From TrEMBL:
Taxon lineage: Eukaryota, Viridiplantae, Chlorophyta, Mamiellophyceae, Mamiellales
Residues annotated as transmembrane: none
InterPro entries on file: Phytyl_CoA_dOase-like
Pfam families: PhyH
Acidic residues: bias regions: 395-423, 439-460
Provenance organism: Micromonas commoda (strain RCC299 / NOUM17 / CCMP2709) (Picoplanktonic green alga)
Top-level division of the source organism's lineage: Eukaryota
Protein name, as recorded: Phytanoyl-CoA dioxygenase
Length: 479
């Protein structure tokens, strides 16, 4: 008997105090908060963690060796679920938890707060090591792609065609034996089909830039890697769909062009609804190419909860152009990344990148907040619209008059203004810190391209330059 359909992530929650918008860092760092959200999963459970072991055995060695050959030849492979004897991973429970997280305003990647998500990487680690020569580097993300998502944003759709890494010297990212120094393991938590967005790839033999490298400059359309792979209509037959059943793993290198399609809703007259595609991906790398985002010795196989929060928050900041967040959520992510308990946890260059991206994310959130004053927040991942959120006045008095509701709306706008200001203050702090440490020159170069009006306040003053007005209004710095 097949499992019942996953519930909709758009269904309202009963207690909005558990919504991400109402949660501070202290609560994020409490295992009990995450256990309460998804009681079927484990959080920092030593007994569960002790039960998790990497997949081993002669049969697994054959599976890994076959995967290695296919990756060398095609740049990718799919390992069927029947070949992967999962012991501790409950794929269905993880998919259900993903829905629950979305309902409560969290990005699906916060599934990484749970032990079961890390058990996937741990169980699969030896297979990937034998197949690719790479170890977990903590570049992890989770996805929930819903064919019926009608919000009009990209929050829960798959990435468009891309390579995971675009190095200046592509051949240098391959070892003498031909293996790539970076690979991704993409594990299906629900069936991934062409209807609900499975992966599509351009196999290595059909990709002229796979090994030699290419130019992904959007201003140079003639050098577009995908266009070079598909120079004529017959070449479109090279596009390969990779359907993946629950529990299977797709492993591909950093140079494979890949993407996920948008899901295709099925009309009720033709049968059951098209289910969402839920998956998790983990990056594996050779440290000679890309160091792990956090120290493996202290974080494998199960990172401490504070490091999980820091890592996922850092990923949300690093991918802010894809996973747009409100200023309030950016503040929470910044708190998680800069919390004293995780000082030094993030690899130096990765943290530098995250803080650079934070400045840009804060600017984007500030501009979005300015444009959206008095308007609905529908469509954002952190929106409480449709989740039963009420103003304080409405909670106290269901029969509140319209003017009272208007007052509450003004109060919410004021809170949003404070969040925007706080995000910009923290962005300024990040830039000042960068200029004061040994990376200051590098950061100054990075921020040059932001000076042309990108970081300006409502009066047109640059937020990159210390003006008297800005200094007078600057809040106390947080440490």
């Amino acid at each position: 008997m097949s499992d019942p359909p996953l519930p909709s992530p758009r269904e309202p929650i009963q207690d909005t105090s558990w919504h991400a918008r109402e949660v501070d860092l202290a609560r994020v760092l409490q295992p009990g908060y995450w256990r309460e959200l998804c009681p079927s999963l484990h959080v920092c459970d030593e007994a569960f963690q002790a039960s998790v072991r990497p997949m081993v055995g002669a049969a697994l060695e054959e599976v890994a060796d076959d995967a290695r050959e296919r990756i060398l030849r095609d740049g990718y492979t799919k390992i069927p679920a029947a070949c992967l004897p999962w012991k501790s991973v409950a794929h269905r429970e993880l998919a259900l938890a993903c829905v629950q997280l979305i309902r409560h305003g969290w990005n699906p990647s916060f599934l990484l707060m749970y032990d079961e998500a890390w058990s996937i990487a741990h169980e699969l680690s030896d297979v990937v090591l034998r197949a690719t020569g790479n170890r977990l580097n903590f570049d992890a993300l989770c996805w929930h792609v819903d064919p019926y998502d009608d919000l009009g944003d990209d929050e829960h759709t798959a990435f468009s065609p891309h390579r995971d890494r675009q190095p200046d010297d592509s051949p240098a990212t391959f070892r003498p034996d031909g293996t790539a120094m970076y690979a991704t393991a993409w594990v299906a938590l629900t069936d991934a089909t062409p209807e609900n967005s499975c992966l599509y790839v351009i196999p290595r033999p059909r990709d002229p830039g796979y090994f030699d490298g290419d130019d992904d400059d959007p201003c140079n359309a003639d050098a577009d890697p995908l266009r070079l792979c598909l120079p004529h209509k017959e070449a479109y037959q090279h596009i390969t769909a990779v359907p993946a059943e629950t529990g299977s793993a797709v492993v591909f290198t950093h140079r494979v062009i890949h993407w996920g399609s948008r899901g295709t809703p099925r009309s009720e007259e033709l049968g059951p609804r098209t289910p969402p595609r839920v998956c998790v991906s983990f990056g594996f790398a050779d440290d000679a190419y890309e160091p792990a985002y956090v120290d493996r010795t202290r974080n494998l196989p199960f990172p401490p909860l504070c490091n999980r929060a820091a890592l996922v928050s850092a990923q949300m900041i690093a991918y802010h152009e894809r996973f747009r967040s409100s200023a309030r959520m950016l503040r929470l992510f910044h708190d998680a990344v800069t919390h004293p308990g995780v000082d030094g946890a993030l690899e130096r260059e990765y943290r530098k990148k995250v803080m650079y991206e934070y400045v840009q994310a804060a600017a984007a959130a500030g501009k979005e907040g300015t444009r959206g004053k008095g308007s609905s927040t529908r469509g954002g991942n952190n929106s409480l619209v449709g989740n039963g959120r009420k103003t304080r006045e409405a909670e106290a008095d269901e029969g509140a008059e319209e003017d009272e509701d208007d007052d509450a709306e003004v109060e919410d706008d004021a809170d949003d203004d404070d969040d925007d200001d706080d995000a910009m203050d923290r962005a300024m702090d990040a830039m000042l810190d960068a200029k004061m440490n040994e990376d200051g020159d590098d950061f100054h170069d990075d921020f040059d391209d932001l000076e042309d009006g990108v970081l300006e306040d409502e009066d047109g003053f640059s937020l990159l330059e210390p003006t008297p007005r800005l200094n007078a209004g600057k809040k106390k710095r947080r440490r």
